[in-house]
Amino acid sequence: MATLTEAEKVILRQAAARKAAELGVPVTWVKAQIHDAGQAIEDVLSSSAVQTALNNAIEGAAPGLFSVAQKKWLVALVMELKHTRDLLG
User: Fold this and answer.
1) What is the chain's mean pLDDT, rounded?
2) Are 25 and 18 in contact (CB under 8 A)?
């Protein structure tokens, strides 16, 4: 399990506050709550079940084509696209 660093927690907290302000949504959480929520998401994304599901999905789409390293960055690239769509779009 990867642990969010203090710097990552600051980035998360500031980004969430910016998005809330942009949408006119009140910030109803405190630092510890947003940190814990972010860590919970990191835990799920880093879990072996999710990693296995992602590996199986990629293998199902393109059997034997991508190495482990390529799968890892492919997932990161798709997550970046999702970030753009969900947060910035």
Assistant:
1) 95
2) no
Q: Could you give the residue ranges of the DSSP H alpha helices within the chain?
A: 6-23, 31-46, 48-61, 68-83
Residue 88 pLDDT level (bands cut at 50, 70, 90)? confident
- Residue 68: burial class (beta carbons within 10 Å; 0-12, 13-18, 19+): exposed
Query: Which residues fall within 8 angstroms of residue 34, CB to CB, at 6 or more apart?
Result: 9, 12, 13, 16
Query: Which SS3 state, helix, strand or coil, does residue 20 take?
Result: helix
- For residue 5 the two structure tokens come to 């660093």
Residue carrying structure tokens 């753009």: 84
Token code pair at residue 34: 């947003």
Evaluate if pTM is beyond 0.70: yes
At residue 78's C-alpha, the angle toward residues 74 and 81, to 5°, is 140
